[in-house]
Each structure stands twice: as structure tokens, then as C-alpha cells.
Amino acid sequence: MARGAAFLGSEVAIMAGAMSWVSERHLVAAMSNAGGFGVIACGAMTPELLDAEIAGTKALTDKPFGVNLITMHPALTELIAVCARHGVGHVVLAGGLPPKGSLEAIKAGGAKVICFAPTLALAKKLIRSGVDALVIEGMEAGGHIGPVSTSVLAQEMLPEIADQVPVFVAGGIGRGEAIAGYLDMGAAGVQLGTRFVCATESIAHPKFKQAFIRASARDAVASVQLDPRLPVIPVRALKNAGGELFTAKQREVALSLDEGRVAMTEAQLQIEHYWAGALRRAVIDGDVEHGSVMAGQSVGMVTKEEPIAEIIAALIDEAAHALDKRAA
Ligand SMILES: Cc1cc2nc3c(=O)[nH]c(=O)nc-3n(C[C@H](O)[C@H](O)[C@H](O)COP(=O)(O)O)c2cc1C
């Protein structure tokens, strides 16, 4: 983990992946204070809100943390400027390929850039464009997902790119033995989301946490695409009535497309806004029936609420044992 930890400036190379509404100042600061690396989820925040969130996080920790920005945010340039003003050390770009000039702008502001690499070809392209590190995330993860599993992505990509930039593996990691496995394969570190939702320091609604504690792996299912003309990125969440509401939303947006009332980009934006609202409804309001309870397949390994430092300690302990057994 030394390479990943040196890159992040943390004690251990475990990132708490940004989770909209969940990854705010308390969880992020607690993660970094526990020796890991917290990442603020900017999501749809305005530059003013992000400014306040970064300032609030800095008040709770003097350890390094990152900020996750969504590439299609209309105010991306201003958000990058906010990060630079605060001297944020690491910006994670999510939601598609970085728009022209964004990598350069982040680096000019003094931060390192971390991007998600969905395929080997795009990973190589991103490395050529100057990214400092990559995350490869499999379809076991919670939230928006790609079509390929973590184990396949890791086998396909790590041997080709792990010596060029630090690579963090994400999706489906619930225990330290899996972390040891990916480190063995060349990863510099890992990123977990689902495992941290029920941390004591997480502000997620008690009902949201309860749903995680009750759920098993097979409850965390991917959304289906209703209309072939309307490409929606699948989202993995716990099965509930909200899933049907999403199907209805897709039907409504597809009809607007048919009738020429919206263009394709606007239609896709409407879908993304829908997810942000549905996630807020579940995380903040506690409506786990009609909101979106985004969760990865590792949710079955979340069995109680516990301080983030204990989660990190357990993961490191499991990883160390696994590596010791191999050395023996
Ligand atoms: C509730 C929830 C919300 C998420 N929101 C975001 C987000 O806003 N931006 C992002 O890049 N990833 C998001 N993710 C993905 C996480 O950052 C992380 O990569 C993922 O959870 C790792 O897989 P795991 O859930 O199997 O640990 C979210 C995940 C969850 C569970």
C-alpha cells in the first residue's frame, strides 16, 4: 500500500469513494482522521455550497482529503477554481471522460487528478493525457455502474497500467482479504463506498443504515434500461418500490423525447436529476421505500453501525493476515 498511501498522503491506501449526500464533511473528515482518504461528493452542489463544504471539512481535519467532481456539471470550471482556492490536493473526476481543458485546469490549481477508467483503451488514453492516478470500478459497486465485474477489470487492466500510474480498485470490496488480493495483482490501493455508509460518523438517515444492515448481496440490483433510444447509465441500489418509480420516470422521459418536447441531452440530464433527488429522499429523509437506496453487492458484509476507525482497522487486519499467510 506504500505507493498508494504516498500518492494520497494518507496512512493507508483506502479511499472512501464519494457518495452523494453521504460523503459530506463529517464522514470525509472522520475517514481522513482514521488514516484513510475521504472524498467529498460534490454531486450537483453549486460552487458556493462546495466552498462551504470544503471549509467545513478543513475545520474537522488537518489530514488530506479529496473532492469528487462530476464532469457534466455545468459549473465544472468554477468548481475546479473553488478546489484550487482551498488548496485541495486531489480532485476525482467522475461521470465520463474529462472535458477539454479540465485536467490542465485542475493541475494548474496544484491538485492531482484521479479519473475513472472504464476500459483499458481509455485508461491508456487518460494516462497519455496526464492523469495522475486511475480508479477501476466494477459492476458490483453501488451507485452508477459499468457493465464489467471488478475481478475481470483488475485482471485485464492492472498488468498493463499498474506500473505507469497508481491504480485504485473499487467495487464489491467488503473485507481485507480482497484488498490483499488486488494489491498482490499490482493495485496501489482500493476504493470502498458501501462498507462506509453505516459508519457511526455517517449522517445517512437511521432507516438508510438499517436497510443496509438488513440487506444481502442479492438485494443490491442494477436498474434496467426501458427504452433502447434513451441510454441510461445503470444504477445499483436495494430493490424497493423506488425501482418501479424509476421505470415510470423513464417512460415519461421517453414519451417527451418521442413528442419532441426535449432533446436527448436534456432527457439524460432529467434522468440524472431524478437519481440525485431519489437518493436524497432515501439518505436524508429516510424514505427507503420510494427513494433510491444505492448500495453495492458488498452490502451483505455490512452488519452493524461502527466507528470508521474500527472499519479501517478490521480491513487492515484482514489484509495483513491474508498477506502473512501467503508469506508463511
Ligand atoms: C450511496 C452511494 C452513492 C454514490 N455516489 C457517488 C457519486 O456521487 N460519485 C461517484 O463518483 N461515485 C459514487 N458512488 C460510488 C462510490 O464512490 C464507490 O466508488 C463505490 O461505492 C465503490 O464500490 P462499493 O460500493 O462496492 O464499495 C456512490 C456509491 C454509493 C453506495
Automatic annotation (TrEMBL):
GO molecular function list: monooxygenase activity
Short name of any one Pfam family annotated for the protein: NMO
Record has Oxidoreductase as a keyword: yes
Top EC group: oxidoreductase
Keyword Oxidoreductase appears in the UniProt entry: yes
Enzyme Commission code: 1.13.12.-
Domain of life from the UniProt record: Bacteria
Record SUPFAM superfamilies: Inosine monophosphate dehydrogenase (IMPDH)
Keyword vocabulary terms for this entry: Flavoprotein, FMN, Monooxygenase, Oxidoreductase
Protein name: Nitronate monooxygenase
Species, as recorded: Sphingomonas kyungheensis
